[in-house]
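Lab notebook, bench 4. The sequencing result for the construct came back, and we need a structural model before the next group meeting so we can plan mutations. Quick request posted to the team channel:

Model the 3D structure of this chain.
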Amino acid sequence: PVYSSGIRSELTTPTGAALLSHFVKHWGPLPEMRVRSVGYGAGKRDLAIPNLLRVFIGDLEETAAYETILSIETNIDDMNPEFYQHVFEKLIEEGALDVYTTPIIMKKSRPGVKLSVLAREEDRDALSRIVFAETTTAGVRIARMDRLVLDREIRSVATVYGEIGVKVFSSGGHPVTLSPEFEDCRAAAKTLGVPLKKVYDEARKRADSLLKG
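Done. Here's the predicted structure in token form:
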């Protein structure tokens, strides 16, 4: 990405920019790593910040996938609450990673709702248009944030209620936690006329072996 730090001076050279564009695959904060060596370089120009360059060489820790996402937020205090389900569905269909609301107190002590949409950079404009079109807001706030995400795969387990899908979350190739697919459990409970929690608990019990394996 390109952004301004507010310093009215060149902070890189054409050679430095060329090296970065060739070698750098991802931009963000320092990832979890085992540092093997650190290098420093100092420039001659006096700046408002230390004129230093620091380079780390190390091995990445295989914990979870790192990515940068956006949080699109707005505060609403004058919308029919029945509309929120429709807004949620539209945003998810358009690619939102998650959508949620938080109760807040706004100016003049009016109760309101903070609508939050987690999104990828490339979906920013499309999701913002939906927020403007489907809610009563006149503006949104957009902030970048970092998140760590475990690897995910869907496995199937045999239960007394039939095959149930299970989401298995892993780190570095090792299963960490799991969660039975809610829709599979609900469908089995409805078809067989048994309590949903019994189907869910049975699927969880059968799936525990995946963590041990």
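The chain has three domains: 14-62, 66-148, 151-212.
Will bring this to the meeting.
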